[in-house]
Design brief:
4-stranded parallel beta sheet; 14% strand; alpha/beta; Serine Threonine Protein Phosphatase 5, Tetratricopeptide repeat; 17 helices
Length: 553
């Protein structure tokens, strides 16, 4: 039997029963990110609130207390109370006053410097930030989210934009992120190319490079907005665990294939990093019948309003969960709990999300594959990953959640050992990640089976018993698969997991020629979940089984 290293937790370094995987992802530390994955403090943040909305200041004060943001880095301005702000109001009431305060309080230091010539631009003297004490701006509940178009705005070279992009409306966040370059006369029409799109170096996101990362604590209520930092900090302590659900459309050609490629890329990231991953490639979005359990990461497209399993409340979002639905107006109204997508996802428990306040066109929405890779693999903060995934600024994307949130700042083996030391039930997810990462590297299924069979946590974990049942099925052991599924149901699974397990158990029982047991399981499902859409799906199966039992044997 292979030896186990007790200092990093049982089972982390080998399968047991002679199986030992070289190049183990946990050993190499690849899952938890690169050297850039360090936790930042509130010293790197400036907060902005709306003085006309009392709850806005309370959210700012709450965040400042939690993240230890210095008082001198909190700014209040008199802003419109709705979600929209005119371009004139934006300039006069937010952009310019904020910039002046940042300079006055020495958070930004400007100086004239020579910009070298490039193939596209001659050398020029520009006024830019040469020193910055902050990297993030956090806009608090009550600060407007979108800048309205200014119809009569004129500027040089505006004719170079095609009609679709000859616009000057934008997300407040996406305009404000260019504040360090404010004195360089940037165009408002169209968008500004992000020179750091897809970067693997998080350090480039600095005001001295013309960019400050802007996020917002927002949502349908101030309570929800405050909760975003609580859930983020909980996930930083415990880790981001759960399942990944990716809802693609099955596109393999055409103008919209790019969106599906991004979705598939995100699914590949989550799968290789050990998340139990569901990738749906049907044209329709997830059906209401889908048991959506223990969600850590969701990405899908392209419904205009919240739909499918997200219509049910509560949704089983894990602390720290990311949820994103690609739709042109997903963030058109952030503070509505049942309209568009961003507000409903936040109201149902998501911790971080991205969205668009107006039509961005597909190629200028966030590249969700890049986001997943930077956030989950490279150890970027939420803010860094969000800004690495955008091709353009001065455009339509809003970033909602604590931008400091970085669940991958702790080494995976160390996290596992800490969860074991605390006796935390979350250690089951760490074991599941070990299994899934090795399966993604094409390690034998039997090795995964033996690992879980010998791991004591499996005996008390519905999560691991369900996985063991899936592995038994893949290994050609249907009886063992059925037994593991039945055991999982006795180990306090979540509500949505219970629904999935009951469906799975009934199908296994029927396939093994046990119609009486399958019938009883389906009836148990309908009894436990009378109002769930999935309960109706059991009806035809029940009638079929009754018919089988009535036939003479």
């Amino acid at each position: 039997m292979a030896q186990r290293d007790e200092k990093v937790g049982r089972g982390i370094w080998g399968w047991g029963m002679g199986w030992r995987v070289c190049g183990w992802l946990w050993v190499l530390g690849l899952w938890w990110g690169s050297a850039s994955a360090f936790a930042e403090s509130g010293d790197s943040v400036a907060l902005v609130y709306n003085r006309r909305v009392p709850e806005s200041r309370k959210v700012a004060e709450y965040y400042a207390e939690k993240r230890r943001v210095p008082t001198a880095q909190i700014f209040g301005f008199d802003l419109p109370e709705g979600e929209a702000i005119s371009r004139k109001e934006y300039r006069e009431q937010l952009e310019q006053p904020l910039l002046e305060e940042l300079v006055r309080r020495k958070l930004f230091t400007f100086r004239d410097v020579m910009r070298p010539a490039t193939p596209l631009k001659p050398a020029a003297r520009i006024h830019q930030v040469v020193e910055a004490k902050i990297r993030y701006l956090v806009l608090c509940y009550g600060v407007p989210a979108r800048i309205l178009a200014e119809a009569n705005w004129q500027e040089p070279d505006m004719d170079r934009w095609i009609p679709q992009f000859k616009r000057n409306e934008a997300a407040v966040d996406n305009e404000l992120c260019l504040l360090p370059a404010n004195r360089q006369n940037l165009a408002l029409f169209g968008m500004i190319t992000n020179p750091y799109y897809g970067t693997t170096n998080a350090n480039v996101f600095n005001p001295t490079n013309g960019l400050i990362m802007v996020g917002r604590l927002d949502g349908p209520s101030a309570v929800i907005a405050r909760g975003l930092v609580d859930k983020a900090m909980q996930a930083e302590t415990d880790g981001l665990w759960g399942r990944a659900y990716i809802d693609a459309r099955g596109l393999t050609n055409g103008a919209y294939q790019m969106g599906d490629d991004w979705m598939r890329g995100a699914a590949e990231v989550t799968r290789k990093l050990g998340f139990e991953t569901v990738l749906d490639e049907k044209p329709e979005t997830f059906p209401a019948t889908l048991p959506l359990s223990q969600v850590a990461f969701y990405a899908g497209w392209y419904d205009s309003k919240v739909s499918g399993p997200f219509l049910r409340q509560p949704v089983e979002f894990m602390p720290g969960a990311f949820a994103y639905h690609l739709y042109s107006f997903s963030a058109h109204q952030i503070r509505r709990a049942d309209d568009f997508w961003v507000g409903p996802l936040l109201a149902r428990g998501a911790t971080i999300t991205l969205g668009c306040v107006d039509e961005p066109y597909l190629q200028f929405t966030p590249n969700i594959a890049i986001f997943a890779a930077r956030f989950l693999y490279s150890g970027f903060s939420f803010g860094e990953a969000a800004y690495a995934s955008q091709q353009a600024f001065s455009w339509q994307t809003t970033v909602i959640g604590d931008p400091l949130y970085r669940p991958r700042a702790v080494n995976g083996a160390a996290r596992h050992a800490e969860l074991e030391r605390r006796g935390s039930g979350l250690v089951e997810w760490s074991h599941l990640a070990v299994v899934n990462m090795n399966l993604a590297k094409e390690s034998p299924v039997i090795a995964a089976v033996e690992y879980l069979e010998r791991e004591p946590v499996t005996r008390s974990s519905a999560v691991l018993q369900e996985k063991l049942g899936d592995l038994y099925q893949a290994a050609g052991k249907p009886l063992s698969s059925m037994d593991a599924c039945a055991k999982a149901l006795k180990l306090n699974p979540s509500r949505e997991q219970t629904l999935r397990l009951l469906h799975s158990l009934a199908r296994k029982q029927a396939a093994l020629g046990r119609p009486e047991e399958a019938l009883e399981t389906y009836r148990q499902l309908q009894s436990k979940f009378p109002d769930h859409p999935a309960s109706a799906e059991a009806g035809p199966r029940i009638l079929e089984l009754i018919g089988q039992l009535k036939k003479p044997r």
